[in-house]
Amino acid sequence: MGTPPQTPHIGLTPIPPGQVTLTDRRTQRSWTVDLAPFHLGTLPVTQAQYAQVTGDRPSTAQGDGRLPVETVSWRDAVLFCNSLSQQEELTPAYGFDAQGEPVLRDPSADGYRLPTEAEWEYACRAGTSGPRYGPLDDIAWHRGNSGERPHEPGGRLPNPWGLHDMLGNVWEWCWDLYDPEVYGTYRVLRGGGWFDEHWSCRTSVRRRSHPTFRVDDVGFRVARSATS
Prior knowledge:
Blueprint: E1 12-15, E2 18-24, E3 29-35, E4 38-41, H1 47-54, H2 74-87, E5 94-96, E6 102-104, E7 112-113, H3 117-125, H4 136-139, E8 171-177, H5 180-183, E9 187-190, E10 206-209, E11 218-219, E12 223-225
Parallel strand pairs: 8-11
Antiparallel strand pairs: 1-4, 2-3, 4-12, 5-6, 7-12, 8-9, 9-10
């Protein structure tokens, strides 16, 4: 029998309650969301952490495990959250419907989950109001400074709440549907990545992808409800 995977340590940062207004440039729509307190991963999930939980190493970029995991689908990220919750004997946040699709079973569950899009932008802004929480080269790996490859998380300056790599390095999956009337099951991506020009690395930029697609500049970070 193989050795069971070890549970990795994933640092979480407490995020206070508040309110955020999101905008979509494509539809010229904006909407405001009230948020309860929650916890968000201080860094995106790394290749080593992903391998410890799942036993898989899907990433295109090869390193010593400290690089952010990428080439993972939205569904992969959801399954990671449930697996990590089970390993830590927490209540998984997600269940599955009759078609086998993930559904949010219990918003107050103490297990790991993906952040909502509103939680992600609120945490990224960290009380700031501009397009970024600092000078781009200081806070993010993007096309202009990355050498067209991902980098170890934490190498750039954090935002005012101590979160690293919210912009640049890898795009991050959020729980939300992007626009179900137009794009069906496509899910939201946020943050910009190592191959993106500066205009994509802004707090308000929205991208979308199919929940089963795996792309080499897309990763994720985890969240937990504050009741945990």
